[in-house]
């Protein structure tokens, strides 16, 4: 059944991947900015970033997406300027609001992952850097950030894996990505339900395993010897 | 006094620069809030009619009983069952028998990698759809149990492995059986190590109950839909209010979790090495 519709399955998963890759990159950028604000010397920035993280992290992704997808148009927040087509994938306002929601949500977890990376750097490292006269920027650039980034590879990887799975939530309200397509397929072919589910699940398992394999390799290559 | 090990206590010029940053940040935040408020105002989102349901007793009742209570029940049952599932499969993964270990490993890996939503829909169609409200409720619980249980299984396994090896060896040496070693010596100690992870999984479960929306299982997200699809069509206020309730619930849960942890484990960590972040927290 899945094989008969492989073209549509591929399209559905390309939506999933578009959502995943775009919001993955955007959330890395935004999360890094948030993390920098949270460990930086300006109190107001620390406060603003941590308020943002606390609020967004405790809101379910579904509600955030509802806000951008259902609430947004009511206040003219429509992303109508997004209207491209790549192959079978239409990048329209639904996809755009999905990407925004995923980015807003995931960036808080990226921020926390990076911060846990900073926390994993032993205090002596920072003290030593300071003792040889490095300023804040130098301490950060040459001592803390290289170690923090490496230490945050495992949590960042699990954040990205969660993001991949969270793309299905976007499907719940409009974008025909893997989850919605499975939903439609099972509706049309009730008899083959378990088969369809297992094939979609298997594709997700493969994607997740690929991600965690890559993360493991990075982790091993970059891990700091202590 | 230096505020952090990361930077020196600022001199006059740096302090001036920081003041500049502070003012700039405040301005930017104020601008964002003002813009949002104007946007909302322009589209009439502050009108009383849009907020009416949140001061009307009938709707408040619906939010509390059909929303908050159901959400909490969903979360509670899922977490309880997930802990059981996690203990069984976590210990299963540590079993000495390959025929126990491998199936447990496969089950855990599978449910960890499959999106909850997929699971939920399958369970709904296979089982819950013909059973009315009852089916919808337990569909969500079942899906969340499988997912969170698989995550917790990993947590339990890691926690049991984190107990110093000598503990288990000593228990065997005084003649305890395998099940005794696990239940009397290893699990109680592992529980302390794992408590933070278990509690943060509770927040995840609570947030994921919102996915019950898809199978109309009740809970806050479903109530939200009922309110804004009703005669108010007040999508923005509803989503803001429901979102705020979720945040509040999670913050309360986090607070209780922190309290419980302090009470049960104490503030000391097992292996306390001073880290950069810890010093900042103290300062």
Key traits:
heterodimer, A: 226 residues, mainly alpha, two-stranded antiparallel ribbon, 9 helices, 2 strands, 77% helix, globular, B: 283 residues, MetI-like fold, 0% strand, flat, disordered C terminus, AA_ABC_transptr_permease_3TM (chain B), transmembrane transporter activity (chain B)
Give the ordered list of helices and strands of chain B.
HHHHHHHHHHH
Helix content of chain A: over 70%
Give the ordered list of helices and strands of chain A.
HHHEEHHHHHH
How large a portion of the residues of chain B is in β-strands, by DSSP E? under 5%
Report the end-to-end length of chain B measured between terminal Cα atoms.
Answer: 9 Å
Low-confidence segments of chain A = none
Q: In which order are the strands of the major sheet of chain A placed?
A: 1-2
Report the radius of gyration of chain B as a whole number of Å: 25 Å
Largest interface: A-B, 61 and 61 residues
Mean pLDDT of chain B: 78
- As a whole number of angstroms, the C-alpha radius of gyration of chain A is 21 Å
- Count up the domains of chain B: 1
Helices and strands of chain A: which structural class? mainly alpha
Secondary structure class of chain B reads mainly alpha
- Round the mean pLDDT of chain A to the nearest integer and report it: 79
Q: What does the largest sheet of chain A look like?
A: 2 strands, antiparallel
N- to C-terminal distance of chain A: 52 Å
GO molecular function, one term (chain B): transmembrane transporter activity
Transmembrane segments (chain B): 21-42, 62-89, 110-129, 141-163, 184-206, 239-259
Subcellular location (chain B): Cell membrane
Protein name (chain B): Glutamate transport system permease protein
